[in-house]
Amino acid sequence: MRHSIIRKPLLRKYFISTDHKVVGLQYAVTSLVFLLVGFLLMLLARWQLAWPGTPVPLVGAWLGEANAPGGVILPEFYNQLIAMHGTIMVFLAVVPLAVGAFGNYLVPLQIGASDMAFPRLNAASFWLYLLGGLVMLAGFVAPGGAANSGWTSYPPLADLATTGQTVWLAGMLCIIVSSLLGSVNLITTVVQLRAPGLTWFRLPFFVWAQLVTAFLLLLAFPPLQAAALLQGMDRLAGTSFFLPTGLVVSGQAVAAAGDGSPLLWQHLFWFLAHPEVYVLILPAMGIVAEVIANNARRPLWGYRTMVRAALFLGFMSFTVWAHHMFLTGMGTVLSGFFQATTMIISVPSIVVMTALLLSLHRGSIRFTTPMLFALAFIPMFAIGGLTGLPLGLATTDVPLHDTNYVVGHFHYVVAPGTIFALFAGIYHWYPKVTGRLLHDGLGRIHFVGSLVAMNGIFLPMFVQGLGGVNRRLYDGGLQYAHAHGLAGLNVGMSYAAWLLAAVQLVFVVNLLMSLRSGRMAGDNPWQATTLEWTAAPTPPLAHGNFASPPRVFHPAYEYSVPGAAADFTPQNEEVG
Amino acid sequence: MAEWLPLAASAEAAGIDAELGLVHLLMLVLFIGWGGWFAYLLVRFSRRASPRASYAGTRGRVAMAVVALVAVTELTLLAAVSLPAWRARATSVPTDPGATEVRVVAEQFAWNIHYPGADRRFGRTALALVSPDNPLGLDRVDPAAADDVVGVNELHVPVGRPVIVYLSSKDVVHSFTLPEMRVKQDVVPGTLATTWFTPTRTGRWEIACSQLCGLAHYRMRGIFTVDEDAAYVSWLGEQAPFARTAPAPGR
Q1: Which residue of chain A comes nearest to B220, CA vs CA?
Q2: If you average pLDDT over every residue of chain A, what do you get?
Q3: A403: which residues sit within 8 A by CB, 6+ positions away?
Q4: CATH class name, domain A26-244+260-534
Q5: d(CA A227, CA A265)
Q6: Complex prediction ipTM
Q7: What is the CATH number of domain B100-244?
Q8: Chain B residues within an 8 Å CB radius of A487
Q9: Which pLDDT belongs to residue B244?
């Protein structure tokens, strides 16, 4: 039954397959590459922030005369770097890794299905995503460079921007269609293909998280798709959906019909982009819940409460979008509504976090490498969540809006938050995929280094933001007297970014090295209860996963059941 | 908290800073509370200290009661502090007849400052009249425009009286920011926005743009000066009224 993943003809196995595991791995490898690309763009930008106007060492000469003459990054190029960093990280790296990779690979295995409901749709979803990603990158060679209006692409700036913005819109359309195909597929799979006995409340929490995420993507992306088409028409077909009457740019009247509304874009964009935050967070919570239950050796506390919290979170995430827009001139009633929903949506997050802590209570905690990342997720996400509080209240948002405080806030949610959860997932399920464990010592170096470096980068952003230092400033704020004392922090933050890069190198080495030389895992190295470990061989069978269709008899996390022979009871263990 | 923030130099700043301090205090209490419990759990229930896990676990009543308490605290904060503060901040334009009124028109990458002059009426503007020497398109025919004062990147206001700023943008979204006044207002082209503040001390600070507005966004900086009344009046007197600014040759 043991078969290596390296033997079969490469092309057949890894490129034109519709097996959900191959599609999942395609997503995983591609999104990890994009994660690296997005990070490298930010390393360039962080050089400029720490040492404005000095030539970028080593790679400076390769950036092109139009972008960085003599290796010194120009403002135009800096704006491309930050716009593409945000876009790539959200749409091409973190979400595809959390949803495309983890969702695709694990959901069918965890529900005892032999594949996704629509395998070809699944493959199409990946190829569209890859196409979207390549289109996005192609922006860098467009006249005037890549998109430079921020990942939010607010018009009129984005309507009037260089060709790169059109390329960005084209890329987004591919990514959105890819996401829609993927989410329809996942929803159908979970609804239709659960193994006999796998009732809704026996589903692993991870599957619930993926299911809610799929609904968010399905319902929130179409408005942005429409908005992207409208912006594309503004740019190419002379429409004025987002262009008001009477624009004068650089002393020249803009030739447009006018009567459009720049705010319409902001509403459509954030109608997606706020649920998108929960698209980033829910799968992370799902992974962390799996890893914590497994390593605390006891059932998740309040499993049903957590599921309800996740459903409520998903629902509420559609009602908070305009808290990104308090300062656009919002009155008391509207801002009151969005402040109230924003306060309310914090409650299910706190419930999930508290339930995770309660799951540790009276457990027997193993500090494995995946567990370290999963545990660190909790306080890091907490910082991200708590700093959302002054931003979600309109009055305190006034001094903080569009400062580095906001940047620190959402990076704590996504970087040491979601990305730590994704790391936990990679360490936890790598043996499922490859049959071998990742090296533990290297994993711990990766963990400690990442934890220190992430905090070194993002914690000072709160200090800068409180001091009034705005985000998206090419020189980190040196123009402004109020920022002078705080711009110096950028040096330390950039050193922390190099440290983060160095420890990611350790991670990449570990990923590659362990493919051949990692310790053999056996079928169930973590002594887990869920079907992917207990019913499928490691690695699972190509096209089919299971030697025989599994039947489920137990809830997802039957750890340390009194009277049981082992401290874990597999979901498919027959009741004797 | 105050030492982390820019100097507070407006009547509105105190309220915002107090709320900011209160919220951060709450955040700190929650983080330390949860963090302390988290650390305790990791030590007390590590495999070494707790070799066998309990299937039943804990009932978690206290923890969930705390969650409910946090929810109530957040909603109280919203209802008792934030909503009234926002109503005062966003909808109660000062009616003080002594208020200073000024138009600020943002463009890539400058702040056009427009004072109404002695008649306290802003002159008519028109898109067609916009030219390099008349960036606002003020109408030379309109008598109200004659005594208007138009400048760039230099905002002067008198101390101790409300200042009302009428904001608009010629091109893209900007965000008018006076850190020391705790003022920040997005300026969306096609819409007029109004913000106001009452400076409580004199000083020379900056106008910042907080919304990405293009390649020179980072240096879309203006000078913001709060003067004693007399100094403000004399500064305004030194500025040429619009009627005496010469149109460029050939017009």
Answers
A1: A479
A2: 95
A3: A464, A465, A466, A468, A469, A470, A471, B210
A4: mainly alpha
A5: 7
A6: 0.96
A7: 2.60.40.420
A8: none
A9: 87
